[in-house]
Amino acid sequence: MRYHFSHHVFPLCVLINALPSFAFVFSSLSHHKRQQTCLFASGKGFGKQEPTPRPAPAKTYGKNVNSMSNSPLPDISDVTMMDFFDNKSRWIPMFRELSMGTCLAVDALRNRGDVSEQHVHTALPDKPSEEKDMSFLSAFLDSMHQSLLDIPITNSPGGKDDDNDLHFMEEGRRLMAIQRFHVASPSTDLFATCWSEIYELKTQNVVHTGSLILVPHVSLQDLDEFCATQVLRPLEWLGLQTQFEVASLQRDSPAIRLLYQLQDMPDIPDNPDAYA
Questions:
Q1: Which UniProt keywords apply (predicted)?
Q2: Per-domain boundaries in the chain
Q3: Strand pairing partners for 260?
């Protein structure tokens, strides 16, 4: 069962407030699919059975999540841990606080930075306030919702979930985890934004939460490279690679999605009013 959204750009507040309702939709998809292959409610379509399934939109998760552009991920073998921490010495106090005790970077962090230095991360608001940024975000979320609707529904033998249903569920639970939203401008320090958000998510320590950072002025290929060299690899050095899922993706515009301790979709009663 999938809710239908009209194709115009929603106001940002409507889209953000609608996110909790997806919990009911995604958790009940399998249950309702076993009962019917094409559902309608009050004249509103939930999707349609198609004789020839359309190709599903590209996944924003999985092992190839950061190679969604036409070019492969850049070779980052020459980006060493020592070089990285030498170049980011101002961030050492924060890296030291975030790092796990037995991480690869333990020696590098011990021998660098003044322990008395203050963190350089910035506590950012959880959503933009500028009208232009809200417009970017509204268009992105509308595109994200549309990409969910574009995942075909197929009638699997025995009513079992197929790859498309799994794709729908996986994208949906990631969308629901996002609680913080940012739009970067050409003057934004993207590294500072990403790591300030990582620090926020880690120190708040609330599972199944995340941040979305739109980067309209950067190509997806460049964003892939940034995520690989400035976020994914350092997270591994700090021992945090199993706690965070990082994806560079594109819907209406390129974006970085940071998810902290992503959880499975919870079992939810067949009562959407619980999320009102």
A1: Signal
A2: 12-49+80-275
A3: 209, 244
